[in-house]
Design brief:
Blueprint lengths: L2 E5 L4 H12 L3 E6 L10 E4 L5 H7 L5 E4 L11 H21 L4 E7 L30 H20 L2 E7 L1 E3 L5 H10 L11 E3 H13 L5 E5 L11 H8 L19 H7 L9
Parallel strand pairs: 1-2, 1-4, 2-3, 4-5, 5-6, 6-9, 7-8
Helix pairs in contact: 1-6, 3-4
Length: 279
Amino acid sequence: MNRVLVTGAAGRLGRATLDLLAREGVAATALDLHDPGDLPAARVVVGDTGDVKTVREALSGVDAVVHCAAIPAPTLGTPEDVFCGNTRSTFVVLEEAAQAGVARAVLAGSQSALGFAWSPEPIAPLYLPVDEAHPLLAADPYALSKQVDEQTGQMMARRYGMTVVTLRFPLLGGMTERLPTFASHYRADPVQGARSLWAYLEDRDAAAANWLALTRPLFGAHEIFVAAPITLAALPTEELLDRFHPGVPRRAPLPGRTVPFDLSLADRVLGLVPEHLYA
């Protein structure tokens, strides 16, 4: 692997991914709307991932892509901005990557593709733990955009033979910021994490998931839940589920703070073992 393009490079996941690539000795091209001046990349391109000319320029000399750029919540723009912006960005990046001969792309997907997080009315899982076969029940433009991104990756794999791995990330954060804040919120009022099933992944482990998705011997399109194996909540998982998701069938025991996602695919396909757990 000679050079990796990281889009959304100045964001949380983009920066963590650039840091990991630098440690692995892999040159990176960073693409973002703005250059903060401190990105650990061999090359920085400023522009919009929905712009064909910008993306084409950024792909020069690249043999793999990690696409992190997105509007990350339906509250951060109009419905049209969120859905059309996210789906155009993913299509342009993957289409131009394929035309440039790039064989591997990793998409920063989201647990929100399930539809739980931002639904105007609460949606309960159909079963627990949630796995990749669970139906996607989008009821907001962000969830729908992430679902369409996955389908775009599948199409690119069929059309061009590209390997596209979509990682369905939960809440991301660092050990000294963001994760402690959300843990405090969940401790004070556990219902605040009920829609996300109290899942999280520390930034460095999220970057490690990207690295594994780039480097494992995979072919075709894959959608994979990644998360820490424990929740960010203080209470036992089964107690939380009894309170906030009563009546949902459980297909496996969830002892202690076990996250109510089936992470076996991440283990089997990626070999991902998160190392930074919020205790």
